[in-house]
Amino acid sequence: MILNMTELFDYTFFRYALVAALLAGVLCACVGTYVVTRRMSLVSGGIAHSSLGGVGVGAWVGFSPVAGAAGFALLSGFIIRWLSRRRGVREDSAIAMVWTFGMSVGIITSYLAPSFLPELPSFLFGNILTITFFDILVLLVLTVMTVAFFALFLPQIIAVAFDYDFAVSQHIRAGLIDAVMTALVALTVVACLKVVGIIMVIAMLSVPQVTANIFSCSFRGMVLLSALISIFNCMLGFVISYLLDVPCGASIILVSVFIYVLSKAIMGAVLALK
Predict the structure, then answer these.
(1) Phi and psi (nearest 5°) for 261?
(2) What is the dihedral of CA 263, 267, 269, 273, to 10 degrees?
(3) Domain 2-267 is in which class?
(4) Are the CB atoms for 230 and 28 separated by under 8 Å?
(5) Which of 183, 219, 146, 147 is nearest to 71 (CA)?
(6) Dihedral (CA of 133, 139, 145, 151) sign
(7) Quick one: which of 142, 198, 149, 203 has its CA closest to 178?
């Protein structure tokens, strides 16, 4: 079995999958820590599910489903933000409208598409083994951009994440920071579609970060620790999916939740002994 696993490194798809897991772990650590701290987990879920509309429109009209998903994700994120901030709509109601609208558009346009979209299961449930060089390049560019943005504006990002109104009172351009982070959430969702899929990408933006929060209370600590946890979850989930011949995306999420429960139990036991 060990020999079989080492032989996998001879295959390009396996090396691509490992690189994708590494990049997705770092990317989701940065963006996900903001999402969890800012309490935007449901917003990211709404963006992820509404992006199905872009996949369907892309298949129907005849352009890249990934480009369609990116367009829908960005539009959905800013519509949710606009409705909840400018039009007096409760955020959960805005999320529900955008979430269901995007999925409805995706379902209808998928049926209207002239031919079956073979990549649809990968978009829905993820399949890291189908990662291409172009997907790796997109993940790399987005990860570098995100890390650079965090490195340049980390104090402002932390202020907005913990208390938006306080950030405004300190003359921080909170609206601009929040808008950029909304865009990064949308693009991260699309970039990670083939890793875990539309349905479960919300977990990559929340579960490792919540796990990291068990051991670290600082924003910087959560980013660094959740990156390590995300990478570990992706690697272990990938190995389990290979050994059991089950979908990789679901394996990664199950590992993530298991690691969270185990970490919570260990920390609870340690605190009980004190």
Answers:
(1) -60, -45
(2) 160
(3) mainly alpha
(4) yes
(5) 183
(6) negative
(7) 149
Structure tokens at 255: 């590992």
CA angle 113, 119, 124 (to 5 degrees): 100
The percentage of the chain sitting over the pLDDT mark of 70, rounded to a whole number, equals: 96
CB 156 within 8 A of CB 170: no
Phi-psi region of 217 (alpha: psi -120 to 50; beta: other; left: phi over 0): alpha
Residues 6+ apart with CB under 8 A from 193: 51, 66, 69, 122, 123, 126, 201
Query: Which tokens belong to 84?
Result: 């909840």
**Which residue, among 215, 218, 222, has the nearest Cα to 267 in the 3D structure?**
215
pLDDT, tens digit (0-9, with 9 covering 90-100), for 86-100: 777 888 889 999 999
Cβ-Cβ contacts under 8 Å for 92 (sequence gap 6 or more): 42
Q: Give 240: exposed, middle or buried? Use CB within 10 Å, 0-12, 13-18, 19+.
A: middle
Which spans in 62-116 are helix H?
Answer: 65-86, 91-112
- At 202-222, the pLDDT tens digits run 889 999 999 999 998 889 999
Contact 21, 182 (CB under 8 A): no
172 φψ region: left (φ > 0), alpha (ψ -120 to 50), beta (else): beta
Burial label, 148 (beta-carbon count in 10 A; 0-12, 13-18, 19+): exposed
User: CA-CA distance, 188 to 215, in Å (whole number)?
Assistant: 25
CA distance 83 to 103: 19
3 pLDDT more than 50:
no
